[in-house]
Amino acid sequence: MTHPGVEMIRTFVADAGLGAGTLIERRDALDRSAASSEPPRGVRVRRAELGGRRAEWIHPDGGRDDAVVLYLHGGGYCIGSLDTHRDLAARLAVATGTTVVTLDYRLAPEHPFPAAVDDASAAYRELVEGGTPPGRIAVAGDSAGGGLTVATLVALRSVGLPLPAAAVCLSPWVDLTQTAPTFESLAGEDPMVTKEGLDEMADAYLAGADPRSELASPLFAESLGGLPPVHIEVGACELLLDDSRRLADRIRADGGSATVTVWPELVHVFQAFPGSMVPEADESVAAVGHFIADRLGPTD
Fold first, then answer.
1. Mean pLDDT in runs of 10 for the chain (300 residues)?
2. How many CB atoms lie within 10 A of CB 208?
3. Active-site option among 121, 143, 217, 284
4. Per-residue pLDDT tens for 257-279?
5. Catalytic pick from 56, 214, 238, 280?
6. What domains are defined for the chain?
């Protein structure tokens, strides 16, 4: 039996025009769909710059101000914005009781690889240089933002910078070759993404770069050791299921800590939808909140 929320997601994707048109048209369609959403409750939103890019600081009412979650939105490195991910980031801020800052990193095809990694790394550096200890920072992201989370950790590690306390990946896209078995075994199950769509976005982002580069597809990094604890949440019916499982396996094989929660019947980044549509979305965000809060430690 199909999850009723997934059928609602399928209808939403079709009605919003998210599965048709050029990359720029899909970007505009996603932005239009976000424009009609209500402002998040329980948070205060402040716009500022971080790492030379626009950013939004989302402060939960009564939350701590001595720590921060750097959130990197999804969208295949080609779509997505502060607007499209404000609600999810706000729910994460409430769940962690911690400020979340979302980053408007540069998008392809206008700004191909490694622009997104450079922007995320610069944002992290500014947080640390501004006085937030690495042990009070977590990095999180969904889809391409989940892959970007891991790529950013690898990039920071390569230059010897201290790493954050934790990382969270929601349905991470960490292999831009699209060759995992679930691209065949789960074809047609996931209304959110298709192999063809991911191939197109990968081509636009890479612009001729090697898809197995560790900063494009961190699954292929020489080593994923030395990273902070990573928690992964993924749907059992999504094409990127194998990306999540293989990422966790690689981290553990290299001596790191990685946990994975696989949600039955659910699809790509189901957390982006309201609990009234997908009750498990609220459960997942709450679990992520506990994971991050535990690793950021008690308030000063």
1. 80 73 84 71 94 97 95 96 94 97 98 98 98 98 98 98 98 98 93 94 98 98 97 97 98 98 96 92 98 92
2. 7
3. 143
4. 999 999 999 999 999 998 989 99
5. 238
6. 4-296 (3.40.50.1820)
268 in catalytic set: yes
Active site residue 36: no
- To which residue do tokens 């409430």 refer? 94
Catalytic residue among 3, 73, 231, 268: 268
Tens of pLDDT, residue by residue over 137-184, are 999 999 999 999 999 999 999 999 999 999 999 999 999 999 999 999
Q: Which residues, at least 6 apart from 289, have a Cβ–Cβ distance to it below 8 Å? A: 92, 94, 95, 96, 97
Judge whether 293 and 96 are in contact, CB under 8 Å: yes
Q: For residue 68, give the nearest of 77, 52, 56 by alpha carbon.
A: 56
The whole-model pTM stands at: 0.95
Is 49 noted as a catalytic residue in this protein? no
Question: 54 has which bridge partners?
Answer: 49
